[in-house]
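Input/output pair, single chain:
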Amino acid sequence: MTASLKVALAQANFLVGDVGGNADRVIALASRAAQAGADVVAFPELSLAGYPPEDLLFHRGFRRQIDAALERVRAASGSTAILVGHPEYTASGIFNSATWYAGGEEQVRHRKSCLPNYRVFDEKRYFLAGAQATVIEYRGFSIGVLVCEDIWEPGPAQLAKAQGAELLLVLNASPFELHKQAQRERVVRERIADVRLPVAYVNLVGGQDELVFDGQSFAMNAAGEIVLRASAYVEALSLIEFVRDAAGGVALRAVSAPALAPELSDEASIYSALVLGVHDYVVKHGFPGVVLGLSGGIDSALTLAIAVDALGAEKVQAVMMPSRYTADMSREDAAAQARAQGVRYSVIPIEGMFAATLGALEAEFAGRPVDATEENIQSRCRMQILMGISNKTGKMLLTTGNKSEMAVGYATLYGDMAGGFAPIKDCSKLVVYRLATYRNSLGAVIPQRVIDRPPSAELRPDQKDSDSLPPYDTLDPILESFIEDDLAVDEIVARGFDRATVGRVLDLVKRTEYKRRQAPPGVRISRRAFGRDWRYPITNGYRR
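Output:
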């Protein structure tokens, strides 16, 4: 009789810190996997804690909850084994571990040996590194267990192979960034080329603050061919089967259908990440809905579309706050989009507030020319209205600024930067346009005029962004070169940009760090976003 092993990959959405609720999810999904005929169900990295748990790990109450959850999972294990990720507390420190339970007993425990400490990861702050490979004999198969970064380095897979592993199960919490899935699959192919073993890779899904986990769990055979790829941005319980062939090797086939979820375009992938990030941030926090300022411009238009797709129209309120400088087309386009998307829509002019504020400051401003101060006052008047609605209703305020603006400080501190979450914070202006066009391809909700017209803050007569900034097709590549590629001025100039323009842009980036430190979190979609993986000093004398 041919030996086989059915493995369920439980691509699930866990809530950081909700240890009891996460244990409930693990037990329920393990039951579903058993009903589907799985011999083993594998969960993502740190499933019981949620990822990343950060300094919750240091709290004594958190440790007690983890210990209690592990006991519950152990007791719930039966003929279908459970491989679950969790923090492991020892006298010497904390490990990022994965434990295999079967028949009500702990079978084996693996301690993650490669701890990432770059970009959004700082695991060396919390965890000790394991030193051993982990291989378990189960139902006629020798199974190597790895946790996330373990597969990105050659050593752990090689050690598992040396100890007799015939296949690898990898538990992951790998966050989304553009083209990350291709990178994951490339890395796994490299490991397979080293060890010639099939690999099953289960990944987390869901939003956690500025991180979004996209799922896309997958399995590859020993030739490095994709056998299964789960859908992106949704929970999935995917079943694969390892089969011992006549030569004694281990083949792999997909049991779940469809075996290969369709690959998403860049725009579809980013947009889906933004939608999931907004949904989970709002829902996991328990907000009844969101409110945002709808100006008739491209950024707020895209943010509204994301919010409605994430939460439903009934949980979204849009507010138009016109001033003396607001164009008729802005009023018309904002109203048209609000109607198209079916959201509650309010029009609250700021002229009275603006005039009253200028009147109160008349003596202080006497003899001084009109400048950006008056523009910023308008922005702060709008925030008073939006924060008032937020406070009164409990709805969270969505901030509508993009990465280009955040980079160069083209935003008002305590004005349009205020809010609880910034969905497009990591989207450059050029990406914003691409996403707006993409969203309309699914069903037109953003008026085409909003996409076509030159962008403007409408804070003074005939204002355009280009009055203050280089064109976005120049600005955004310069910003990407500096922020994501860490290039120096000479290197950016070598890419074909004017030296003076480069210097001006980078000076703006440096001078406005204090603003970014006070900005709300937002979904990370790039290799380097403002947030966890951007830690420039506010006060510094560095000269490029």
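Residues 38 and 423 are 38 Å apart (CA to CA). The radius of gyration is 26 Å.
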